[in-house]
Amino acid sequence: MTKSELIARIAELNPHLYQRDVERIVSTIFDEIASALARGDRVELRGFGAFSVKHRDARVGRNPRTGETVSVDAKAAPYFKTGKQLRELLNGGESV
Amino acid sequence: MSGQTITRSQLSEAVYQEVGLSRNESADLLESVLTEMSQALARGETVKISSFGSFSVREKGQRIGRNPKTGEEVPIMPRKVLVFRPSQLLKSRINTAAQEDHGGA
Question: Where is the signal peptide (chain B) (predicted)?
Fold first, then answer.
């Protein structure tokens, strides 16, 4: 499922809405999550999962092809932890 | 870094501000987006959200685990886990912000 398929599906479930508005709604949701993470906030959606930012320390890496050492800067990485209900749904549990 | 936790209510408030729908309907739409994504994943589909990231389901085989408290060996059944791969754009957005906040540290 792609973002446009998701939009099409939500539009199908809500025939009273303009497709254009559904696009804005879906984009707003992901944009808000991204902005929250960029601020260093956590986003917790009970049952679905939680998005957070993990900090990775600087380290000395190696180019696997040449064996050359390279320094890798400290960085922040987005992380998602699956919620309990979704984890159960994936494993044949009852639906959400 | 502010370190707040954003929940459904702030996300549906953002939807409410963006589109001229009621707060109730905004909350319902957010829920329906999460439900549709969950159901696609439960069907084994990958959910790809451009400029955000992709969610996919990975099958894990059975392995022997250990109860860390008792040291007892317990089989861990084969199961499905969800993997989120952030897009390059999301990663760079987070890093740009982090560098501005901490001066690169």
Answer: none
